[in-house]
Amino acid sequence: MSASAGGLGARRIVLLVLVTLTWGLNWPVMKAGVADFPPLTFRALSMWLGLPLLWGVLRVRGVPLAVPRVHWRELAVLTVTNMVGWHVLTILSVRALSSGRAAILGYTMPIWSALWGYAFWGQRLGARQIAGVAAAGLGVAFLVWHELAHFAGRPVAAFGMLAAAAIWALGTQQMRHTRMTRVPTLAIVFWMTALTTLVTSVLALAFESGGCHAPSPVTWGAIVINAALVFAFAQVVWLVLARDLPPVASTMSIMLVPVLGTLSGAWWLHEQLHWQDGAAIGLLLVAIAAVMWPPRRPAPSTTAPGVGE
């Protein structure tokens, strides 16, 4: 099929939709998986099962896995910012928050990315981007205020999700400016996943070994879904597509993930939605669009070259 939309072929559209659905619907899956199971152990088991699947995908695609020794230090830094911080903090925080609220806070990542780019890489923030940052800040304030205002609130977990988003955003900027230009992106992802699996396993053994028990069928199902669909499918497909995606397509995908996470959590886990959640998600969508949506291209001039200069 050759149908396309905005430069996307039909096959890429299908893959992008599947990735967006996987990430959005996985928030209540993770929440259910860690409801009565140690969260770091859950994450470690998911990654141990997903790692050989990821290796198989790379072998089928013929991706070389060698990373020159000169890049090992940078690979370690990228692992911490792109995966360790995100995967550890999100799985700890989602246990204490509703899955929808965790998704909303987690997907403030594009806003943090814009701020990191401004602070360290000289990327300009225009009026639209500044408005987007302000909208995201107001949305986050609604959620954190609601957590602080209720006895059962978990403000520490809310700040943990914000920290996860900020660290992931820093890693995203670092990936864009990496010196490992000759190393395939998927090889970098494989080794980051492998290192994160080891770090998460050590943390699980250090802090959760005393309370570990056999996973329930629901937990096993969540572990398998994360291993197969998140680590071996969505993560790989997104990184393969990301280089060629039109900005509008990637923006829409990221905008839909917290919406799906919130709605699916309310439907499947019967999580109660408050007006703060609705306001926050609306403000976050405005913020992501403001920060990531491409600017209008100026209309081509009809004046002949040199005339009017």
Question: Total number of helical segments?
Answer: 11
**Would you report the number of β strands?**
2
Strand and helix order: EEHHHHHHHHHHH
Low-confidence stretches: 1-6, 301-309
Overall pLDDT score: 86
Percentage of helical residues?
Answer: over 70%
Classify the oligomer: single chain
Rg for CA atoms: 20 Å
Summarize the structure in words.
By secondary structure, the chain is mainly alpha-helical. 73% of the residues lie in helices and 1% in strands. It has helices at residues 10-33, 39-61, 72-94, 99-106, 109-120, 127-149, 155-176, 185-208, 217-242, 247-268, 275-292, and strands spanning 4-5, 8-9. A two-stranded antiparallel sheet has the order 1-2. The radius of gyration is 20 Å and the shape is globular. It starts with a strand and ends in a 17-residue tail after the last helix. Residues 1-6 and 301-309 have low confidence and may be disordered.
How do the strands and helices of this protein lay out in sequence?
Elements: E1 4-5, E2 8-9, H1 10-33, H2 39-61, H3 72-94, H4 99-106, H5 109-120, H6 127-149, H7 155-176, H8 185-208, H9 217-242, H10 247-268, H11 275-292
Helix pairs in contact: 1-4, 1-9, 1-10, 2-3, 2-8, 2-9, 3-7, 3-8, 4-7, 4-10, 5-6, 5-7, 6-11, 8-9, 10-11
Write a concise keyword list for the protein shown above.
single chain, 309 residues, two-stranded antiparallel sheet, 11 helices, 2 strands, globular, disordered C terminus
